[in-house]
């Protein structure tokens, strides 16, 4: 590999992210087919982690214009690009971002790439568990606040003038029901906060032990 190729801007992490977002775009128009640098297209697809099957789409596009892709050049470029895509730091980034595992890496690189991906994935799952529990706690606290507000309204109604005995009894019944609901929600919050403490400890441990 030449020094110029080593400095190719496709090697940057930012470009990796952009290319990943464009992964589904594989169509070529007439001018692109006629002027295609198939090694460069293969390289870009490799850096983006695209499947080898995408060249079949290029073949269909260019067949309309009587152009046949240079498959050898494309494959050579893609293999070169995959050397960049399949680095461990990118594997970790994909796992940590919750992305699916891409089955594109050469055998020689897949082991370390998968290990890094799994490490990132573990962190992603631990962080997601913490976020879900935070959300559930917030939801239950909002429910508790609503119950407390309703109970306060019932208590105010209970001491209002002009109520008959049976009306006060019904209000007392409602207050008792609301209190039971509040107690139940408070117990849920306590349990969730205990879960959150354990989940946060696990997240902290995974983050601390991560080699990336």
How many strands, what sense, and barrel or not for the largest sheet? Answer: none
Radius of gyration: 30 Å
Structurally, the number of domains stands at: 2
Helicity, as a percent range: over 70%
Uncertain segments of ≥5 residues (pLDDT<50)?
Answer: 1-24
Indicate the structural class: mainly alpha
The total strand number stands at 0
What's the number of helices?
A: 9
CA-based shape: elongated
What does this 3D model show about the protein?
This protein is mainly alpha-helical. The protein folds into 2 domains: 1-85, no CATH class; 128-209. It has 9 helices and no strands. It has helices spanning 3-6, 13-21, 30-35, 38-47, 54-63, 71-85, 88-96, 107-158, 165-209. The chain is elongated, with a radius of gyration of 30 Å.
Please summarize what this structure is.
With 212 residues, the protein is mainly α. It is built from 9 helices and no strands.
């Amino acid at each position: 590999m030449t020094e110029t190729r080593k400095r190719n801007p496709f090697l940057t992490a930012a470009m990796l992210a952009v290319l990943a977002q464009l992964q589904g775009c594989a169509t070529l128009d007439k001018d692109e087919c006629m002027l295609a640098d198939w090694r460069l297209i293969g390289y870009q697809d490799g850096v983006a982690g695209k499947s080898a099957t995408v060249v079949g789409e290029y073949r269909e596009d260019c067949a309309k214009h009587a152009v046949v892709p240079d498959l050898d050049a494309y494959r050579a470029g893609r293999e070169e690009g995959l050397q960049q895509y399949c680095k461990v730091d990118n594997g970790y980034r994909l796992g940590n971002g919750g992305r699916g595992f891409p089955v594109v890496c050469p055998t020689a690189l897949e082991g370390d790439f998968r290990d890094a991906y799994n490490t990132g994935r573990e962190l992603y799952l631990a962080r997601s568990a913490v976020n879900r529990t935070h959300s559930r706690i917030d939801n239950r606290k909002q429910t508790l606040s609503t119950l407390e507000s309703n109970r306060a309204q019932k208590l105010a109604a209970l001491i209002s003038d002009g109520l008959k005995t049976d009306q006060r009894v019904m209000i007392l019944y409602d207050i008792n029901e609301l209190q039971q609901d509040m107690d139940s929600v408070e117990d849920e919050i306590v349990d969730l906060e205990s879960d959150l403490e354990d989940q946060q400890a696990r997240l902290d441990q995974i983050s601390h032990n991560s080699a990336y």
